[in-house]
Amino acid sequence: MSKRILIVLTRHDDLGGVEKTGYYVPEAAHPWEIFRKAGHAVDVASVRGGEPPQDGFDPEDPAQVAFLASPDARDTACLADVDPARYDAVLYAGGHGTMWDFPGDPGVIRVGRAVYEQGGVVAAVCHGPAALVNLTLSDGSYLVAGKRVAAFTNEEEELRGVAHVVPFLLADELVDRGARHEPGPNWQAQVVVDDRLVTGQNPASAAPLAERVLELLAERRA
Fold first, then answer.
1. Digit-coded pLDDT (tens) for 103-161
2. Long-range Cβ contact pairs of 70-73 (< 8 A, separation 24 or more)
3. Are 217 and 121 in contact (CB under 8 A)?
4. Where are the alpha helices (DSSP H) in 44-147?
């Protein structure tokens, strides 16, 4: 049975004054392609709607080219207007921009909480788990508390050269919220599934993360 999946993107474009940033295109494009090929409906939203800033685009990658050519990617829905009851899963794509606008955005928290509490799948990749930093459930507990997670590591942030620029170190912040961070080798795919929470460490994790989301959705067939 076809499901409906929401991909959420950042609208922040400034990496601490060092360079321009945004969402990392392959981290949205590859899952978008995988979900659609599996027969699911996919919508795209961002923190403020409209055309989100991009980072990491590879014009030689057909999936990325197709994603950017789609109307959803060019004119995203505003997350504040999204009805989470429509979705079986939500994926928070990465890119450094998420570190600034995901943690404090009410829509990010509202949609993630609703999807999870209605039995859906919450997924996040690379810096996308910034969405999980302040994502609390109705009882006030953090969604990540007591759960195993993957996210962009401190070492990868150092190697990227911006550990001193980002507002916080993502892995550390998740651990502070009670998560059990499970890092894999630098730049290699690392996906962790704990209940209906699926997290990936870096861009290489985006496609395998999408496949794990599909597995969980298949288990929820009605």
1. 999 999 999 999 999 999 999 999 999 999 999 999 999 999 999 999 999 999 999 99
2. 70/32, 70/44, 72/42, 72/43, 72/44, 73/28, 73/44
3. yes
4. 62-69, 71-74, 98-101, 106-117
* Residues annotated catalytic, as ranges: 126-127, 157
If you average pLDDT over every residue of the chain, what do you get?
97
- Looking only at the bridges linking them, the beta strands covering 121-125 and 89-92 are parallel
CB distance 105 to 82 below 8 Å: no
pLDDT greater than 70 at residue 88: yes
Contact yes or no for 126/201 (Cβ under 8 A): yes
What's the rounded Cα separation, in Å, for the pair 96 and 67?
A: 19
- Tokens encoding 212: 């794990």
In angstroms, rounded to a whole number, what is the distance separating the alpha carbons of residues 190 and 170? 15
